[in-house]
């Protein structure tokens, strides 16, 4: 069976030991530094502010007004004659308005603000889970490409050894130049594939470095997460119930329903309590007080209220369509992921058996080739078969793990 070792020991005489980076550590750093998280956190704060604005309509509204006129002309009637007098004047007025009843418009707006805040929080959780999913992919891609480099390096060594053997056999007259040339061509191809694996490793390392906000050493010690065979017990219903993306859309639908009801309630107006006190000096100083109720009923608003109700209906229908579409997408993706997961499990088992069989065959052919009983084509074929099986096993392990991580993302898991 092909064995994996993802722990790379440092050979640096200066540093003494390579730094390590555990998967959970990478996740925590990414959540702290990624701008998408910061942007979504601000969306939550904005929703909180909107809820406070709506709640303010329940509280008393107090206004203070002051006016001073350095010159003002007063008209005074006396004996049927109007006399004028120029003087200064001032006025100070304090007014208090308290909403008493507006047919639940304010309470509906407040509830809509609270639900909008919940939607923003669920959206933030979804973005966090998506970032965690991406970090896991890049982290494990580094593991895969590092192991692929080791497999490719081993392949280069085998091709070099076969080429040297072929050259020696040519000099002894046991093989033709075609044997040596064929092995040399295979050696160049192996070196090219090694360079590709190294480039893919550095790509994954660079992306993960950007996610966590710090440079990652090429010899970093990584945690082996690919070899773990997790038991998946998730079902479709649990995914639908746990999905933060779906919860966010459902909350948005509730918010739009409440805003629609609030828009309808605005047709009926409101009843407010009003109190005021005024102190003024206009030739004579005096004060006045007022306590009363006001009834405001919108008779004509240029079509604004009706348009707001119509807009509320459209928003509600649009949100319902978004919820339905998301539910369908989640069901489709879950079914596909479960099918893929079963396929990867079977692929891993078959590749492990292939590696075991091809390794045994390779040992036999190597001995037969040295005795002149096997051709270079047979040697290259079995070597290529073993190499492909090892790389396919790596890919299947990665795909299985990626599928599990995708299921975890759909449920909003952050670990």
From TrEMBL:
InterPro entries: OMP_efflux (IPR003423), TolC-like (IPR051906)
Main location: membrane
SUPFAM superfamilies xrefs: Outer membrane efflux proteins (OEP)
UniProt family annotation: Belongs to the outer membrane factor (OMF) (TC 1.B.17) family.
Organism encoding this protein: Sulfurimonas aquatica
Superkingdom of origin organism: Bacteria
Swiss-Prot/TrEMBL keywords: Cell outer membrane, Membrane, Signal, Transmembrane, Transmembrane beta strand, Transport
The UniProt record lists the keyword Disulfide bond: no
Endpoints of the signal sequence: 1-23
Protein name in the entry: TolC family protein
Cell compartment(s), UniProt: Cell outer membrane
GO cellular component, one term: cell outer membrane
One Gene Ontology term of the molecular function aspect: efflux transmembrane transporter activity
